[in-house]
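Propose amino acids for all 274 sites.
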């Protein structure tokens, strides 16, 4: 049902709600105006309460009949702005309870880009034994293994293979890959995803770093036809000197594909086929 998508969903005690950034949400620099994050989070809080049985309209009607003047109010907020979201980004608003009392509730909310949120969600969907297999190290790399000027880099197929995943996990994993391939124009995205599907059984998922709601992390998806990396970095021109979630990179490359085009001009001049 449509309203189920609009309300978001509960995942392991957390409420997850997707939000697309529109032009009206941004300021003159093209990034989300800071106050609009409060609107995103307010909608997520409302939908979280609705899904756990505290529908605002019902509460309002009950209060109007039994205790006029009763209402939910926000008493305090603490916000940390870590990195900007931009027009057309798809964000996920994560809401989880931290403390529940008789007449109050303390919530923790995070606004994440899909690549970060869905990679974490997939790791969260694994069993402890599967996570142990997926983790290939604890020390985060400063840069991606296949970042710039690393054409045709050879990286071991370490991590959790598709063969060790349940059908539901496979579907979620394939959706994570599609999140990246869908950045292409529709026709190209379909061709790319079809190529990934043909080699899906030879695909692995790997993770580096701690696994918890706040620590920085690295993950990758690796197959004979695609190499995806997402990782948090320390700041270079940014104020954070250590690794945290304030600074993130993501990349998609074609293994052994010369996709940086280093030798294209040389190939043209020498007549050697690419």
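Proposal:
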């Amino acid at each position: 049902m449509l309203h189920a998508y609009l309300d978001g969903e509960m995942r392991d005690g957390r409420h997850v709600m997707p939000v697309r950034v529109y032009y009206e949400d941004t300021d003159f620099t093209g990034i989300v105006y800071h106050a609009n994050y409060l609107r995103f989070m307010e909608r997520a809080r409302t939908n979280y309460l609705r899904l756990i049985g505290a529908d605002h309209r019902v509460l309002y009607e009950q209060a109007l009949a039994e205790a006029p003047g009763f209402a939910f109010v926000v008493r305090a907020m603490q916000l940390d702005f870590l990195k900007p979201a931009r027009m057309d980004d798809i964000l996920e608003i994560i809401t989880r309870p931290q403390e529940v009392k008789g007449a109050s509730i303390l919530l923790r909310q995070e606004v994440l880009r899909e690549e970060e949120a869905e990679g974490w969600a997939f790791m969260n969907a694994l069993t402890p034994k599967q996570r142990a297999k997926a983790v290939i190290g604890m020390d985060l790399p400063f840069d991606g293994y296949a970042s710039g000027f690393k054409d045709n880099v050879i990286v071991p197929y370490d991590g959790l293979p598709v063969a060790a995943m349940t059908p539901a996990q496979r579907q979620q994993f394939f959706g994570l890959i599609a999140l990246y391939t869908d950045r292409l124009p529709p026709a190209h995205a379909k061709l790319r995803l079809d190529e990934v599907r043909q080699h899906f059984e030879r695909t692995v998922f790997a993770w580096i770093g701690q696994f918890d709601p706040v620590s920085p992390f690295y993950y990758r998806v690796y197959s004979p036809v695609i190499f995806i990396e997402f990782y948090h970095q320390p700041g270079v021109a940014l104020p954070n000197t250590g690794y945290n979630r304030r600074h993130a990179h993501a990349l998609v490359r074609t293994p052994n594909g010369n996709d940086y085009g280093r030798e294209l001009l040389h190939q043209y001049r020498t007549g050697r086929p690419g």
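The helical segments are 2-6, 36-51, 56-66, 114-125, 128-134, 167-181, 186-198, 264-270. DSSP finds eight helices and ten strands in the chain.
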